[in-house]
Amino acid sequence: MIIEQIRAEARALGPRLVEWRRHLHRHPELSYQERETAAFVAQTLNDLGIRCETGVAGTGVVGYVEGADTSRTTALRADIDALPIHEADDREYRSTRPGVMHACGHDAHTACLLGAARILQRHPPPTTVKLVFQPGEEKLPGGASMMIKEGVLNGVNRIFGQHVMPLIPAGKIGMRPGKYMASSDEIYLTVRGKGGHGAQPHLGLDPVAAAAQIIVSAQQLVSRRADPRIPTVLTFGKIVANGATNVIPDEVYIEGTFRTFDEAWRDEAHRILKNLVESVATALGATADLQIVRGYPTLYNDPELTARARNVIENFVGKANVVDLDLWPASEDFAFYTQRIPGFFYRLGTRNESRGIVHGLHTPRFDIDESALEIGAGILAALAFEPAN
Description:
Elements: H1 2-26, H2 35-47, E1 51-56, E2 60-65, E3 69-79, H3 106-122, E4 127-134, H4 143-149, E5 158-169, E6 173-175, E7 178-181, E8 183-192, E9 196-197, H5 207-218, H6 220-225, E10 232-240, E11 247-248, E12 251-260, H7 263-283, E13 287-296, E14 299-301, H8 303-317, E15 322-324, H9 334-340, E16 343-351, H10 372-383
Parallel strand pairs: 3-4, 3-5, 5-16, 6-15
Antiparallel strand pairs: 1-2, 2-4, 6-16, 7-14, 8-12, 8-13, 9-11, 10-12
């Protein structure tokens, strides 16, 4: 019966969910700068009669809905930050801030959690619920890690989170137990030599040639050192030499990313990469300064919690509308939560080909089928009713 009531409540909330999402979409804010967004969330919670804390990890907001069993707590999480992307489409609700856009759907996540809050306020859940509106998901060190340090998981027994997915049609939900999303580390590398005239390379030491050899050799980290059963990605996406057609520069600057799905291999790979970079540079007479900035860990969905959540979601949207997901090599700071307590992170389908809503995350034409909002809000609320162990 409660699933039917939540479904009806979410459907009735549809217009307000769209209103909330479009307000947030018009007023995006970058990571750790979400002051107006936090104020909007706090005011909305206050209007709903829900107690909340502000200023958590800077701009985070945490709301509280008291349940029947106050000794156990379920957390529901939404991220609230936007991306440094200029919105391309001229929608009525397009971003009013040039160069800043909700291109990853965090406006939808926030609207859905506000909707779940309203439903839970009207239908008290079996456990106390923490409504976690988290800043800074898009930028290291990750708002999740900061909120954990400030105690957001204190007393929490399990946590649920969702993310829009433009590859899945609206009306469907995607999930995967166990390892789901990759760890992600940032690589910063400077290769130094001795610059000079391009016609006289023998009088200097070409860091461009050395950098090229390092990049090619580093790929053996994936092809020959990684266990083939562990997906691994090493990508260099930025190379700056600042020479000219006839000028050899003194140094080359390189940026990249390393991603995998195994924490032990992740640590070993860092060591191997450092040794490889230094060895190749030394062999060529150059020097190399490698910095690996540790990012988000592998996101792990607790199998037991995922199985129980699947039952709830299948009851909500129908078994045919739940799809199994492959490993996803993107990263997500929700993984910090799942390292501490049982967690479940799933995908909310938002694609609608007939309306041209097909563009990917982190692109300037990204949008969602807003009919997914009532599904997202309803599922978050319904998960809070899944009996906690």
